[in-house]
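Structure (tokenized):
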């Protein structure tokens, strides 16, 4: 595995925050790298402990971008550790998609039977839909990173830190000029960071205990992990609507050359 994809180096194991990863060390076309300790991604922050707050302070994370909807925040409210007070930006995206995925999961725990492909296709559809239907939210993410962020470290998250966060971080890395293969590899690192096989085993047991209905761990993979094809579908949707990924970045997200350079000054090595 290339050094830039070294999971032990970039994964930050915290009991109260899942899938917390450093986006440093990725290579760009002009020979630079993303700065270590400047940009992070994770799942939700509702289960943070005081230890988590200390870790966030040590890493100087001062900006938080939260993609969750209001309904998600009600279910999993954040109680900020006393020593950590970041600049918090609520940027809700993917509300309809998140609600539909929850419906599918709730139907499982209630004992309903549905084809496994419906869950998988739900996530594939989400990746096709989010970049276009939620372009304004993704543009707000870029605006925060360029205009509001004060220059230390920033954290982007949603609920699981894999789908909306995966799209958002892939767009940031692409705008920074990171090699496309490394963008995909970072997206796929979620599967290792959350130990997808073990997680789906636990989820299968939980569903069986709740409903008496046995669902194979493999069928539950979309709830825990990600697939490269999902990101490719997001890319294809952008290309179909805007002609190219660069066209999407410039037109939908407002990243002209000057703003992209500001982003690169903030998150790339000299």
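Design, position by position:
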């Amino acid at each position: 595995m290339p050094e830039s994809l070294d999971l032990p180096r970039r994964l930050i194991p915290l009991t109260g925050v899942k899938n917390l990863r450093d986006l440093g060390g990725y290579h760009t076309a002009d020979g630079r790298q993303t700065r270590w300790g400047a940009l992070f991604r994770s799942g939700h922050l509702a289960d943070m402990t005081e230890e988590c707050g200390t870790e966030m302070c040590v890493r100087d994370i001062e900006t938080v971008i939260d993609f969750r909807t209001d309904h998600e925040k009600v279910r999993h409210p954040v109680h900020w550790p006393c020593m950590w007070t970041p600049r918090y930006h609520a940027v809700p995206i993917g509300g309809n998609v998140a609600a539909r995925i929850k419906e599918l999961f709730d139907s499982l725990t209630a004992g309903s039977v549905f084809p496994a492909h419906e869950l998988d296709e739900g996530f594939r559809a989400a990746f096709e839909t989010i970049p276009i239907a939620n372009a304004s939210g993704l543009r707000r993410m870029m605006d925060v990173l360029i205009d509001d962020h004060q220059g230390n470290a920033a954290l982007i998250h949603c609920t699981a830190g894999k789908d909306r966060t995966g799209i958002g971080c892939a767009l940031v890395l692409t705008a920074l000029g990171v090699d496309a293969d490394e963008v995909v590899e970072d997206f796929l690192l979620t599967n290792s960071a959350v130990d997808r096989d073990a997680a789906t085993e636990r989820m299968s047991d939980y569903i069986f205990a709740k409903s008496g209905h046995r669902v194979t761990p493999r069928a539950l993979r979309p709830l825990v992990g990600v697939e490269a094809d999902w990101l490719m579908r997001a890319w294809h949707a952008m290309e179909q609507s805007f002609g190219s990924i660069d066209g999407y970045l410039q037109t939908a997200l407002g990243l002209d050359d000057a703003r992209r350079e500001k982003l690169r000054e903030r998150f790339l090595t000299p």
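Reviewer-requested clarification: The chain has a mean pLDDT of 90. Residues 3-253 form a domain with the Protein-Tyrosine Phosphatase; Chain A fold (CATH 3.90.190.10).
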